[in-house]
Every structure is written in C-alpha cells, then in structure tokens.
Write a structure and sequence with these properties.
By secondary structure, the chain is of the alpha+beta class. The protein is built from 1 helix and 4 strands; from the N terminus they run ββββα. The protein binds zinc ion.
Length: 73
C-alpha cells in the first residue's frame, strides 16, 4: 500500500512512503519521512546533500545533484 507523501525539499506530492527508495520525481530528494527530526545540516546516507543544501539548490532551480530541475507537469 502506498501513500501520498510530500517532498520535504520542494513540496511535490508523489506516491511513496513505504520503501527506502522513494525519490521525489521533481528534485530527486529521497523521501525519509523523518526529515523534521533531522538537523538541516545533518548529512544522512540516503541523499547526497543536507536538507539545507538541497533547499538552497532548489531555490536556485536545481535538483539535489545540482542539475537543472525538470519542467513542472
Ligand atoms: Zn522534491
């Protein structure tokens, strides 16, 4: 069973929440479900950057890999 989850970085809603590899289709952030408990500067293993870095990249129009974001559907 899957749920609608909301990307912690860019706010995109997508199906997920029940596996360890729920990547946001927009910014490619791997949804964890406990981002609120992470320090913005904590680096965990699922994503290549911290929450703070990912949000900064998103604000610059880039995904978590520093690549241009895809067009919004
Ligand atoms: Zn996202």
């Amino acid at each position: 069973m899957s749920n609608k989850v909301k990307c912690f970085i860019c706010g995109t809603e997508f199906e997920g929440g029940d596996s360890l590899v729920d990547n946001c289709p927009y910014c490619d952030w791997t949804y964890l479900g406990w981002e609120n408990e992470l320090d913005p500067d904590d680096k965990e293993t699922s994503n290549p950057v911290t929450i703070r870095q990912a949000k900064k990249l998103f604000s610059e129009g880039k995904n978590i890999w520093g690549e241009p974001l895809p067009p919004r559907n």
